[in-house]
Design goal:
alpha+beta, 4 strands, 55% helix
């Protein structure tokens, strides 16, 4: 299993409205169980949003670039994604952890 499985999982959550982006994410921030943020945040607005997330003490995962997240969702770039469902958030984190473990094993 690779980290691509975690990205693929995000791609499944998005059309089922278990993952939200954009304005909907800003409006429903309180409902979100986990925020997936891109690793390559550079604009002032992105950094302010990241600060808002940290001040709200929302769980945060930063593993993929905006292009990688966007490609999984069928967009050009996605800087922030919120997973609404707690079980889905836990499943994503488990897939991410297994992907990291499998990549370390493959290198050795």
């Amino acid at each position: 299993m690779s980290q691509n499985d975690a990205l693929g999982f995000l791609g499944l959550l998005y059309p089922s409205h278990q993952a939200i982006i954009g304005e909907e994410l800003h409006k429903r921030m309180e409902e979100v169980a986990l925020i997936v943020a891109a690793t390559d945040l550079d604009s002032g607005e992105s950094l302010r949003t990241l600060g808002r997330i940290k001040r709200a003490h929302k769980p945060l995962s930063q593993t993929f670039t905006a292009k990688e997240i966007g490609k999984a969702l069928g967009h050009s770039e996605v800087k922030f994604l919120g997973i609404v469902n707690k079980k889905a958030a836990m499943s994503y984190l488990l897939k991410l952890k297994k992907g990291e473990k499998d990549e370390k094993t493959a290198v050795q």
